[in-house]
């Protein structure tokens, strides 16, 4: 599937602004971004339940929609799966899955049983939606959407209604079924962890536009700007001014090649890449290492998060708050003075906006 230069406005306000995207068979692409950024509108346009103001949509190289020609939703070979599952309460599991198939249950029994086996629900073939758990209903909705063998599967926040304890297992099972069917998948989500877990490619969306696109590893480790970095995790920000391709900070000098002198920059570092030491010269590295120069901070509070601890520091140099994420249990008392160092090779440097 390919969408080219899709635009959509409501009341003169641009909601989808020149969005282009390709999704290949067997590939899961996540359209990731905050609420209101245009993700669901993009999905609705692809599905054919909304109409773009300009741009084209192609499936298998064939035009299915522009501003003049339009294939109806049922003719696009596109499956839809939404937050509320939208199962028919008066139909059995088999009836729900057969709904989009010609002839009903009897001639499609083999396909229905095949899909229910894949989602481990064959024993519930004659059950009704109200007799199933939320996770089971989600899997029935998946089977129903896949039953007609769509070329493309559109999924709009399909796991948001599930209990956190079930969500990871259902995501993994869903991904396995989708890969097995070889369907091109476009998944809309506002959760970075979900996108990282499921996607072959992430398209990060903001204010109606795709601002960055790539493999999860690349988009996480090479964000385009501060907002992109901050969308995936908490970040610490240190500011400075460039002089001679260097930026001087309380943590030492940072290389900023190609940035004009006098430019204000933001050095962005994730909490897990701050190192904590108990004194300035004891166990910490010297200023020539990649961790740079130590800077003193005072513990404001610390919290145990399960697999790690999060410690907040008020820094001596400007009173700002920096957060450090530490494996396991580390709970220093408020008022404890400690030294922080930054892993320079894990920093991102952006011009200050």
TrEMBL record:
<feature type="domain" description="ABC transporter">
    <location>
        <begin position="1"/>
        <end position="232"/>
    </location>
</feature>
<dbReference type="InterPro" id="IPR008995">
    <property type="entry name" value="Mo/tungstate-bd_C_term_dom"/>
</dbReference>
<dbReference type="InterPro" id="IPR027417">
    <property type="entry name" value="P-loop_NTPase"/>
</dbReference>
<dbReference type="InterPro" id="IPR003593">
    <property type="entry name" value="AAA+_ATPase"/>
</dbReference>
<dbReference type="InterPro" id="IPR015853">
    <property type="entry name" value="ABC_transpr_FbpC"/>
</dbReference>
<dbReference type="InterPro" id="IPR017871">
    <property type="entry name" value="ABC_transporter-like_CS"/>
</dbReference>
<keyword id="KW-0410">Iron transport</keyword>
<keyword id="KW-0813">Transport</keyword>
<dbReference type="InterPro" id="IPR003439">
    <property type="entry name" value="ABC_transporter-like_ATP-bd"/>
</dbReference>
<keyword id="KW-0406">Ion transport</keyword>
<keyword id="KW-0547">Nucleotide-binding</keyword>
<keyword id="KW-0067">ATP-binding</keyword>
<dbReference type="GO" id="GO:0005524">
    <property type="term" value="F:ATP binding"/>
</dbReference>
<keyword id="KW-0472">Membrane</keyword>
<dbReference type="Pfam" id="PF08402">
    <property type="entry name" value="TOBE_2"/>
</dbReference>
<protein>
    <submittedName>
        <fullName>ABC transporter ATP-binding protein</fullName>
    </submittedName>
</protein>
<dbReference type="InterPro" id="IPR013611">
    <property type="entry name" value="Transp-assoc_OB_typ2"/>
</dbReference>
<dbReference type="Pfam" id="PF00005">
    <property type="entry name" value="ABC_tran"/>
</dbReference>
<dbReference type="InterPro" id="IPR050093">
    <property type="entry name" value="ABC_SmlMolc_Importer"/>
</dbReference>
<keyword id="KW-1003">Cell membrane</keyword>
<keyword id="KW-0408">Iron</keyword>
